Amino acid sequence: MKKAFTLSDIVRIAVMAALIAVCSWLTITIPFISEVPFTLQTFAVFFALEFAAGRNGTISILIYLLLGAVGVPVFSGFRGGIGHLLGPTGGYIVGFLLTGIIFWIFDKKFGVKSIMHYVILAAGLLACYACGTVWFTVQMSVPVGTALLKCVLPYIIPDVIKIGLAVLLASRLKKIIKV
To answer: Which domains are assigned to the chain?
Structure first.
């Protein structure tokens, strides 16, 4: 049986979608190292899944994507529109939804506990990397190795740290705020 959305669910979804947008605006671009800007977007995605749970976190990611697709400037560099989403780095943004779906499935099926949070988010991140890398190689006509060097390798350590911080912050906030 499907659980209806409560007012609390709707507020959490909206706040998490807004958080993802705000964190995407916090950007550092390092030329010659990466084609994809460094943002706190992935932190917000991980946090949304942890704090709002699988279903609500995934829906917040979907809302974020839809807002960006229709032109609301929620992507890095205050950009929006379907053109940006379909551009070379759009696969990484779409990959956030894969991260959410993976987390939601495991959360619903197994009730993700303790250390598994890190493992499932890491698996979701790998799916995001895979989606983005394939997308980038097709869009830019570059070998997979080049895409991995420019678009994945520089992000692995920062993204692992973001997973840890998101899980830690969400677990602490859940104790303070009734979720």
So the answer is: 7-171 (1.10.1760.20)
CB burial of residue 81 (10 Å; 0-12, 13-18, 19+) = middle
Quick one: which of 67, 91, 82 has its CA closest to 19?
67
Q: Taking a C-beta distance cutoff of 8 angstroms, is the pair 20, 64 a contact? A: yes
Q: What residues pair up with 38 in beta bridges, in sequence order? A: 28
H-helix or E-strand containing 159? helix 156-176
The distance of Cα 61 from the centroid of its chain, to the nearest Å, equals 7
Tracing tokens 């493992």 back to the chain, one arrives at 119
- 67 CB-side CA count, 13 A: 19
Distance CA 76, CA 165 (A): 21
Q: What's the mean per-residue pLDDT of the chain?
A: 90
Q: What is the pLDDT of residues 82-139, one digit of tens each?
A: 999 999 989 999 999 999 999 999 888 877 677 888 999 999 999 999 999 999 999 9
Interval 36-57: pLDDT, tens: 678 899 999 999 999 998 899 9
Contact 45, 64 (CB under 8 A): no
Q: Is 133 helix (H, G, I), strand (E, B) or coil?
A: helix
How many Cα neighbours within 13 Å face the side chain of 14? 7
